[in-house]
Design goal:
There is one protein chain. With about 290 residues, this protein is mainly α. About 75% of the residues lie in helices and about 0% in strands. The chain is built from 14 helices and two strands. It has a two-stranded antiparallel sheet with strand order 1-2. A hairpin with a 7-residue loop joins strand 1 (about 40) and strand 2. It is globular and about 70 Å long. The two termini are about 40 Å apart. This is Carbohydrate ABC transporter permease. Belongs to the binding-protein-dependent transport system permease family. It is a multi-pass membrane protein.
């Protein structure tokens, strides 16, 4: 089979998946971007209004609050989920029974429904019967007891632990797979050169999985910017929009206020912000890589 036949075979194999992706992802994104230029309630004729929806978005303080909260989520994910998952992967990448059990326990939140996770953390944060305030009371730290999800000043930060806990298992499995794919010959050569322990980790293992870490960062950014279900279950964007995210802002504008054109403009804005942040992260990663060469 020559190279041309190989390309044709690969193209035919990928074509069904590409068609499904285009139908359920690309086409809705383009359709949503199109309706962002209209005033439409979801029923009846859509009225073309140009950039008025986008002008309203950038002038809406709720949008900037939601964008700020999304940035907080992105930073918490990148600097919380990635380092924690990487540290756990280094500790648990072997195949002993205890390590396999711990990996399964850490991955468990990925199997659970987001509704279950949100309800569990609601009970943890409950001001009267929550385990967090109970522990603080038991330890004599009554002054630390707070209305975790009702205080507008701390509610967004109270959502960070469940966010990290929910997805750290995914990146743990990704990093374990990357570490296990490093050839044993490389480890043997490093051992012969006297590189062991922390030195081998910093000089050999981490550089070998750099591209995997970059992919994980992209997943973190894109996942954080479209976060919705966990926040909606726990706070619905409140109190007073203190935990509003771009996705909840879009949902409320579309399905509560019935402003489908405005909601479409918000969803397009989410895509643009995602591309900008992902592009910036990749540019920084490439700059760092070039400086190390």
């Amino acid at each position: 089979m020559n190279a041309l036949s190989n390309r044709r075979f690969i193209t035919l194999g990928l074509l069904p998946a590409l068609l499904i992706y285009a139908l359920f992802v690309f086409v809705p994104v383009v359709w949503s971007a199109y309706y962002g230029f209209f005033n439409w309630s979801g029923i009846g004729e859509a009225k073309y209004i140009g950039l008025q929806n986008y002008n309203e978005i950038v002038r809406d303080p709720i949008f900037w609050r939601a964008l700020k909260n999304n940035i907080i989520f992105v930073l918490a994910s990148v600097f919380g989920q990635i380092p924690i998952a990487l540290a756990l992967a280094v500790l648990l990448h072997k195949s002993s029974f205890l390590q396999r059990f711990l990996r399964s326990a850490i991955f468990l939140p990925m199997v659970l429904s987001t509704v279950v996770i949100g309800m569990v953390w609601q009970y943890i944060y409950h001001p009267q019967i929550g385990i967090l305030n109970f522990l603080l009371d038991t330890l004599g730290l009554q002054s630390w007891k707070l209305q975790w999800l009702s205080d507008a000043g701390i509610a967004i930060y109270a959502l960070i632990p469940p966010l990290i806990w929910s997805f750290v298992g995914l990146y743990l499995i990704i990093f374990i797979s990357a570490l296990q794919n490093i050839s044993s010959d490389i480890h043997d050569a490093a051992r012969l050169d006297g590189a062991t322990g922390l030195r081998k980790l910093v000089s050999i293992s981490l550089p070998m999985i750099r591209e995997t870490v970059q992919v994980a960062v992209i997943l973190c950014i894109s996942g954080s910017l479209k976060s919705f279900d966990l926040v909606y279950i726990m706070t619905k964007g409140g109190p007073a929009h203190a935990t509003e995210l771009l996705a909840t802002y879009m949902y409320n504008s579309t399905f509560t206020s019935y402003r489908y054109g405005f909601g479409s403009a918000i969803s397009t804005t989410i895509v643009i912000v995602s591309l900008l942040l992902i592009g910036t992260s990749q540019w920084l990663a490439s700059r760092k890589k070039e400086s190390m060469i």
